[in-house]
Design a protein that fits this description.
Helix 3 packs across helix 4. This protein has 9 helices and no strands.
Amino acid sequence: MRHPLDEILDDPLEELYDLFEWDVKQKPPIETDQPSAYGGPNQGEWDHPVSMKRNKVDERIHQGFAPEMAHQDVHGDVDLADVGAKSHLAGTLGRVQDESSKRGVKIEAGKGSILSQEAELEKEMEPVTHNDMSTPMRGQVPDKYQTPGEASAPMGEQLEIEEDYDYNDDVAYLQKYGRA
C-alpha cells in the first residue's frame, strides 16, 4: 500500500525525464558552405539595390544634373500623392546637402560677395603667426605689454633686476615698537 506522501515526494520532473529518454532526432548541422543571395559589404561582386540606385544618382549629379533631375532620372517621376516617393526624394536631397556641407564653402573671388571681399581683406592684413595662436604660459607677459627689447631677448636668458632696499625703516620700526 502506498503512502499519500509518496506522491508528493515523487520527482515533479519525472515526465520530463521520460520525454528526454524517448528517441529524439538530432538537429541537422548548419550549412555554411552555401552562398547567400547577398555577398556582404566586403565583396565587390554584388551591390545592394538601394546602394546601386544611390550610386547612379551620384553619377548623374557629378555629370552636372540638378539633384532633383538626377533623382527623377533614376527613380522615375515623383508622385506627390505617394509618401514613399516624397521620402526618397527628401533622402536624396538631404544626402546631397550633407555632402556639400562637408566639402566646405568655396569662395569665388570675382563675384564680389561679402565673403570674397572679407577673404581679400584678410590676405592684405598681416598674417597671424604661431606665437599669436599659442596659449600663454603662466607668468608669461603678453606681447602687447612687452617692450621691444624684452620681446627680442632670447628665451633662455633671465632678466636680472637688482633691488636696492633701505633697511633703516625696518630698524626704526623695531626700535620704536619692538618685535612684531
